Amino acid sequence: MGWLFRFLSSSIGQKFISGLTGLFLISFLLVHLAGNLQLLNTDVEAAKTSFNAYSHFMSTNPIIRILEIGLVLGFALHIFYGLKLYFANKAARPVAYATRDANANSKWTSRSMFLSGSIILAFLILHLLNFFVKARFGGEEDMYTLVVEAFKLPYYSIFYVIAMILLGLHLNHGFQSAFQTFGLLGKKYASVIKGAGVAVAVIIPLLYAIIPLYFLLGIGGK
Amino acid sequence: MALDSKIPSGPIEKKWYNHKFNLKLVNPSNRRKYHIIVVGTGLAGGAAAATLGEMGYNVTAFCYQDSARRAHSIAAQGGINAAKNYRNDGDSVYRLFYDTVKGGDYRAREANVYRLAELSNNIIDQCVAQGVPFAREYGGYLDNRSFGGAQVSRTFYARGQTGQQLLLGAYSSLSRQVAEGTVTVHGRHEMLDVVIIDGKSRGVIVRDMVTGEIKSFAADAVVLATGGYGNVYYLSTNAKGCNTTAIWRAHKKGAFFGNPCFVQIHPTCIPVSGEHQSKLTLMSESLRNDGRVWVPVKKGDTRKPKDIPEAERDYYLERRYPSFGNLVPRDVASRAAKQVCDEGRGVGTSKMAVYLDFADAIKRQGKARIEEKYGNLFDMYQEITDENPYELPMRIYPAIHYTMGGLWVDYNLMTTIPGLFAGGEANFSDHGANRLGASALMQGLADGYFVLPSTVSGYLGSTELKKVTTDAPEFKVAEKEVKDRITKLLSVKGKYSVDHYHKKLGKIMWDYVGMSRNEAGLKSAITEIRALREDFWKNVRVLGEGEELNQSLEKAGRVADFLELGELLASDALNRRESCGGHFREESQTEDNEAKRDDENYSYVSAWEYKGDGVEPELHKEELTFEHCKPSQRSYK
Amino acid sequence: MNFKLKIWRQKNSKDKGRFVDYTIENVADDTSFLEMLDILNEKLIANNEDPVAFDHDCREGICGTCSLHINGRPHGPKPKVTACQLFMRTFRDGEQITIEPWRAKSFPVIRDLITDRGAFERIIQAGGFISASTGSAPDGNAIPIPKADAEWAMDAAACIGCGACVAACKNASAMLFVSAKVAHLGKLPQGKVEAKKRVLNMIAQMDKEGFGSCTNTYACEAECPKGISVANIAYLNREFLKAGLS
User: CB–CB of B77/B200 below 8 Å?
Assistant: First the structure.
């Protein structure tokens, strides 16, 4: 196991884990999105029935419980290595430049993964407290009503949308960055992967963000 | 003292082979007991230190740069010659030998040059094995280009950065030895003296350029590979830090100085633009493969180049030297440029430049092909001059580039001080009075990888060396001298900066000891240098302390040495009343202004012995004999 | 042209250091940035003030010695040049120019604008070589090398080791430097023999020196005076993963 320890203690090894867990979390985003999209069903009663059945399944099924451990681990590793690398990177430049024209050589999004990640984390915690805890531990059965009511609150929906924009920015850099870290962003496929990254970064957060706006603007949920 | 060049007997192609057999060896298990100091980590020094380390010697290397990888060999652009004959165009070891002796205008030692040509092939092999990314053809085999002074394609290259790549090769081998523990490299250390004990070179005094500490290092042999002294002219293509201090200190300790007046002036440099200019930038000679050199036929023609019709252009190299054309050797091309500018036909604002025109080559081969070959050089030219060489012809002028002269060494590359060796540009050896393009890298690496490791071993194996430490009184005396000199420089507290003196010296050297020299000029140069030197020691201003990083102090020490070397250079030029290679005496020229050699009186190496400050140095002559290359008036017509 | 200069002055590695303002007048527009500093230093010496210490040597963009952070960017505002190849015509007349040393924990300041880049030396010593002792080489043409590989190796080998990549990176990461060496040697058949050991050892040393990690902002590529591509970093990552996980 010495090799694994050495691998995980190297900067590239840690980035590898960070990238791998990041891609894994994207798969979770897709599954979660599929569930959420049920809320857009214009037949309110059907939406309510299917969404609550889905929530019930997700919070009680034993296989999901096992997968949940993986998900928690994925988040934990992604956050842990993200923070570890962030602070190590800070320490690598103890004296800052007096002037720095960073926009001349790099994109703001690529430099702000800590910021976007932190806000997404804050959102995640709030989101867990509002919904997950209630469904999973509070025995809440009518998740549909709970969610729809929350989305009708402007401050909640707006924070949700902001978090999704940041998620988009995070994914925009994170997706292609992970492939670079895996060494797969070679000269041949770089443009394909970067294109896919942009698609992921736009489509997923956009679809998520449509849902609270749908309720906030009073288009659905009547 | 009589000079003994120790040239081995026997047929020329067997000399090195036999000599290696006759040299004494050191048993592999005993080698780590010997300590060798290498000063300078360019191609010669870096390669020697790495190879001696691989052999098992205990090596300490010094360089003034922060890293061994930054030595000025890195700036060589064009390529490295080797007699591989991969092009099947009639090349051979013998032809490379012959071309080099002829190119050097018959002022080099045949035996040394033959060895150089022989080793050229091993160098390419060694560099390829180290991972030097030489240019290749589509079949995967090594590519070649042609260079001035040769009619075969024997130059291997890595784009326009051959020196860089070869140096990185030597540096990586050196780094490997550092990791192995056989070599220790001290960057930002400058050698300020050699220490002689019982007539042998037994160590050096260095200054740690970060702390200012003066340190002693003892050794069994010392190798100087500290490059050339072109910066005596202030403006040159050398790096700003290049200096003569190491070899000049050795000279003052008894090493003879060989042919100091043999200085190469490179024909294709970007012309001087103003007073503020700190260095001259070379445009690789390889450009002359495709560029055509010309000036207007009329004097003082101020028309734009494109407005000058073909009939009113003088492609003077093609006109004067139809068989070599634009590819004549460097000395010939430089002198021809000076002549047309002196006639008032120079171009550009300063009128001290000629055109190097690619219009025909672009028409014939297309812009893409030219870009592929010279893209980085064209970019560099445009960066510096703000002119686009794809559209306008380049303006070029000769500049000081390389010094063929250096410490006199025998066939073993040992100076007149036993145990003190000199390699690369620091020695005088293989190029005679003029170096051919792509031969400096070849010589540096031949000395470093192959010659010095054998000959230094031979010296160690055959010499009784008593144990010496830095506690020896000779070290204490040398340390004190070094410290006193620093104190003296700092205590003058005069009016003028070091650069002020360096620029003045450069002007004297360029005006009187430059591309064209005459007796009256050389005599005034000597008088003026003496006066300048005196003024320097009375009026130089060096601020700061000795015990800190002090760039003014570093420069002051170097310029003080240049002020002494400059005089010797002029004296040597005065003594040599003939024109040969880079040394052109106006008193010795043919009717059509070509250089005229005087083999009867000057077929010798000048080896100057230092006799004390203010005392005339003594000239020793090493007569040159030519058994294979019969001296003839060089003709590139 | 006239300029207002704001230059970092620091007596030695222990000194705290500070910015000092200077003005400089009548500079010709074809003066290089370093020549402009020469002119300033001549002026300072004339006024009995300590000249500004800065690293420089070849002044033709190849030795990699010069290392100035100019107006917020390594080697200044012009892409693909070193500070010595930067000319004053790039700046506006009267412009304020801030000059700082490279900033990184692994590149401590020695004096004024000079830093110690010894960490790069130790990374190369950890494995940036091919173990081919003098005398052991076969003929140069014994192993044909595909032109594309030789070209890639040469592109990577063009690195001058100046450290602008570290200076530009928000994490002070040395990945572009290390990747250039790993790719240069790894792309050649001669370098493949030791590829695994090389990449593991060089990365271990890089981490040990205290450089940050790469977060793929690609600031290094944008600022590299030799245009070294971040495709080399992808190559390095791939080689490292291959070596570390197999």
Answer: no
